[in-house]
Amino acid sequence: MSDPLISLTAVRRRFPGAEVDTLAGVDLTVATGERLAVVGPSGSGKSTLLFVMGLLDTPTSGSVALGGRDVGTLDDAARAALRREHLGFVFQDHHLLPQATALENVLVPWFADGRPNAAARDRARDLLTRLGLGDRLDHRPEALSTGQRQRVAVARALVRRPRLVLADEPTGSLDRARARELVDLLTRLQDDVAVVVVTHDPEVAAAFPRTLRLVDGRLADAAVAG
Amino acid sequence: MIRLAWAGLRHHRRVVSGVVLGVALTTALLVGGLAMGDSLTAALRQRTASRLGPVTVAIERPGNGLTLATATALGQVLQAPVAGVLSLPAVAASPQGQARQVRLLGADAALATMAGQPDLVPPPGSVRLDASLARRLGVVPGDRVTLRAERPGALSRDVALTRDADAVVGQSAEVGPLLDGRWPTDLALDVTPGDPDVVLVDATWLRTRLGQTGDPRVDQVLVAGPDATTVQRAVAQAWTLADADLDLMVSEGGEHVLSTPRILLADAVAEAAAAVPDATPALVWFFDQVRHDDRSSPYGFVAAIPNGSTAAVAEVLPAGLGDDEIVLTDWLADDLRAAPGDTVVLRYPELGAARDVTYGEHAFTVAAVVPVDGATADPSWMPPIEGMAGEKSCRAWDPGLPVDLDRIRDTDEAWWLAHGGTPKAWIRLSTGQALWSTPHGRLTSVRWPARTDADAIASALRAHLSPGDAGLRVLPVKEHLVASERPANDFGQLFAGFQAVLLFSALLLTALQAAFVVEGRARELGVLRAVGWTRGRVTSLLLLEGACVATAGVVLGLPAAWGVAAVWRAGLDGVWSTATTGVSLPLALSASTVAIGAVAAWAMALGAMAWTAWRLLRADVRPLLVDAVEPQAARAARWPVPVMVIGALGAAAVVATTPAERTPEAALRFFAAGGLVLLAGLGQARWWLGRAGGDPLGPRAASRRPRRSLSVVTLLALGAFLVAGVGLGGGRAEPDPADRASGSGGFAWVGDTTLPVNVSVASAAGRQALGLPDDLPGVDGVVPLSRVDGDDASCLQLGAAQAPTLLGVDPTALSTRGAFALLGGATWDDLTRDLGPHAIAAVGDTATVTWGLHLGVGDAVTWTDDHGELVDVVIVGTVASSVFQGSLLVDRDALVRHFPHAAGARTFLVDGPDADAVASGLASALGDRGAAFEPTSERLHRYAAVEDTYIAIFRALGGMGLVLGALGVGLVLVRGVQERRGELALLRAVGFTRPAVGRLLVREHLFLVALGLVYGTVAAVVAVVPILATPGVQPPVGEVAAILALTGAVAAAAVVVATRRAVAGVPLAELVRDRA
């Protein structure tokens, strides 16, 4: 196995007022370049797991290490910096900015710590072109189809060359054909980019070499396929 | 539907409560502001009650009043309480102070009965004052005060036929128990600001001090109960010849002679008397000298009667006397050594205004010489000239006419002893009237043969004369004062206007919150549509909810309105007291005001909610179901560019053509120009929102909700425009007293006296009479004005003026100086335009005419003159911002024609290089007449202070409205964050820290605030450029800047605080639909 990129050790997460743990002691390691699908029924804690991995949520107990570094003691600014530098996100609701063009939406991560330079702009254009949106650079989301918006969201996730892409139900809003395209895109990313997809669609999960099942807050069936 | 609506309101009670509070605030402000109108009306009603008490009608006779006997008879005719009083303007003084404009009231038991206070009238020699007057005079019961008033007279003291030297009577009196505040403590029959100062004395004592002899007379008869028509009928029945100053006596020869202490019979009386059969009208004039060759005879009387008269003397005089023929008595012929056919020259006084006497001469041919015997030796021909009639020796004469006693010879004295005022010569009546007629009359007596029945004469005279002809005026004072209870300007609407920005802010915030509520329930409403509810039914549900919310808000707001009204009233009693000229307003709220305000607030709130619901529901169902009114960035709309162009060009055109004058028209143009610039600015804002330029994460984010963003900008821009525009436009140039075109007319000083000045300051005799130095320089810089006191129509008086004070001026005194800038092309010569016998021309201050009287050029106010006739005072021109505010200027001669007893000067304008010395000298010399002089700039400041206070109120309330709007920006931000939580969570996910997200939101919203404030301020500055270009204008830039800065600071604080709270709560779980 490649070097571990992100490791979760005995991670528990219980929300305020809840009677049970949403995550009840999760151990998980994702290696650099690994492709992983996490499946489970509705309410099983898949998104919570993704949020913990994406440093968007803090576990109640346990530890999370990114690149071998424990992130548990980092403050909000440090975690945000890590997200900027290493992580990319794709969500079911793409959350594009309606007032920004497709190109500007892709460049949003660059605005987090400054303004995008020429190289960043070139990369954004390149990504959109490769995703078949080369003629839609100046279009606003309202002028794009759902599938095109999701591709913009994927480009946004990749624009800063993350080491880990986290996708939460990325095909939820797409039809079968567009879903296959998106899955194909995610699975064919650069080898050093790890991808973790949370899905309840078995067809999507089947495209990934490793599938984990989350049931009642615990990971089960951790066998590696292929 | 009702259950569903109630369930919806309960479920969303948190956000709905915001709407309820917004409606409550709107209601409280609207009703609280309108309550100021009710409060002012209540204050004016209280004023009416305190001034009038039970009085409904008053009867007056300017000059010498009417008899007490007639007043008593009226009470019996009317079967109602009637009280005759002496009512004189007076000056009260003590060692500690002076009160200039007191009303000296001489009363008797009748007034005490009317007031229900048996002990009302003080004993002879003492006075009763109210507490405030006593404080100002620094006296307590037991102290002494000096009262000065002018003796009433039948003829105006402006005419030299009267004596002026002892016209002002001073009398010391002891202060008795103070008046306790009950009526008639504030008795007054007119509409003037401030509380009247009444000094109550015993009427009999006062008559004695005034030197009144004969039948007791009163100036006013107060009637309680009957209306004016009933009183008019009673007066017509009860009045007597004595009321009209008419004496019908029998001469030594048995002839019946009608004469008057007025010396000259009024024209109406003369006409009525001449209509009685066998009447002989006569004009008997005092001559200065008769000359023949080198001989002359001083002083005597010449009688002018018509040829063919029935008087006994006509049998002695030659028939058919020619126009230039004279009949001498033998005494005079001997004195002159004149014979029939000789020419004699008669020198006689000509009477001018201000007791001016010049001399005219006329040559006559002696037609005959008659002996002084029988009919020609009748001293009853002489009019009752004060200082002459009744004197035993002509060397004791002391009349108003100039008489050199050194010229009187022993032979003259002998004549006087033997014959008194018997005429020494006779001429034809037409000649006499051509030489000696005055505006005050053309006859001195009318006589009838002895055979005539005196009662028949009296009856015929009364039948031919109306009470008005006799000078009796019946005044419906209660109607007049009740009419003045209507405020000159609707204070309620004025205050609602002051609160315009505040109200607009409250309403807009209410509408925004209502929009939040409705938009937040988009999915819910979409489900209703999806399951088959029609648009109309869904709208009905929302309107039902909205009606409940609006009702709750109104119910909550009404009690708060009382609090708002109390706050405004406290302001009007305190820092803004100038606006109410010190009148303390009671807190009043009428049912109609509550209803109007409540319904208006309810309707406005419901309208805002209905508008939001309509906008939301006109879309298809699907957008509602997929949550939202999914925001789409603003597309470029079509209207902004044309609006920008039209607004900019229109504003430029208006500004270029607006004159720099402070006229109502200029104010309207200012608002038009500012409105156009504002419109252009808002168009520019919308245009910008529709474009794609700029940082997508910065201010461009405001284009997500273009309507909402534009609402914020509009709110702040409109508020800033009104606050800055009214504030900057309120600056005024310091008036240059020497500038003829200014409101001072180039006059440095203006003064008023309580008692009239009947001599001319410009004449040596006048200066001598007043005790001024003979060589006082600059007296030709004094312009005297006569005055008929009426309602004060200035901004210092809150009630509606009906009959404003009239000032009589010689128009040439103003036109030769080029004083004052008349508007609309009028000139001072217009004052002498002939408008017919029942109309006179007037010029008024623009503010008085427009705001005080609600009239314009060409309109008229109606007065009842001293002859009892209605006179239209027609406005022919106006002057802006002048010292004449509150009054109307008319030609002095026209004024005296209609109001002879107002002939003396009571207002003075002083200009010239020696104005200070002249004003000081006049103030000192006329102190006993209650003189007060002030720089014209001070008077103008006093008038301007009311307007300045209105502007200050508007600025303060407008500033509050701006601050409320600024707070509302925070509200908009919080709502916006809720709607954009997914986006904001995404930004956090891609690496934005919380502070970075906060900074984005702050930048975006402060941009809108800055846009609004800048647009509004620029629009205001552009629009007041014409005013600012006026030299000497000092706009309150600091104060306006402080308000705008405070608004910006509050907005910044609201945005920062709201951002912190909102961003802290952005849950990252919003990133996903499945929140597990």
Order of helices and strands of chain A: EEEHEEHEHHHHEHEHEE
The overall strand count of chain A is 10
**Rg estimate of chain A, integer Å:** 17 Å
Biggest interface reads:
A-B, 44 and 33 residues
Radius of gyration of chain B: 39 Å
What helical percentage do the residues of chain A reach? 25-40%
Number of domains of chain B: 5
How many domains would you count in the coordinates of chain A? 1
* CATH top level assignment of chain A: Alpha Beta
Report on this model:
The complex is a heterodimer of chains A (226) and B (1076). Chain A has 226 residues and is an alpha/beta fold. Chain A has one domain (4-220): 3-Layer(aba) Sandwich (Rossmann fold), CATH 3.40.50. Helix content of chain A is 31%, strand content 25%. In chain A, the strands form 2 sheets. A 6-stranded mixed sheet of chain A has the order 6-7-8-3-9-10. Chain A has a 4-stranded antiparallel sheet with strand order 2-1-4-5, with helices on one face. In chain A, strand 9 (210-215) and strand 10 form a beta hairpin. The longest helix of chain A is centred in the middle third of the chain and has 13 residues, at 118-130. The two termini of chain A are 13 Å apart. Chain B is α+β, with helices and mostly antiparallel strands and 1076 residues long. Chain B has 5 domains: 1-49 and 482-630, no CATH class; 57-238, no CATH class; 247-464, no CATH class; 633-735 and 937-1076, no CATH class; 749-936, no CATH class. Chain B is 44% helix and 18% strand. In chain B, strands 21, 22, 23, 24, 25, 26, 27, 28, 29 and 30 form a 10-stranded mixed sheet that branches. In chain B, strands 1, 3, 4, 5, 6, 7, 8, 10 and 20 form a 9-stranded mixed sheet that branches. In chain B, helix 2 (13-52) packs antiparallel against helix 15 (500-520) and helix 14 (491-498) packs across helix 15. The longest helix of chain B is centred in the last third of the chain and has 44 residues, at 936-979. The A-B interface holds A 22, 42-48, 51, 54, 56-57, 76-77, 80-81, 83-85, 88-89, 91-93, 95, 97-101, 104-105, 108-109, 111-113, 138, 140, 142, 156, 168-169, 172 and B 630-633, 692, 695-697, 700-701, 703-704, 982-983, 985-994, 996, 1068-1069, 1071-1076.
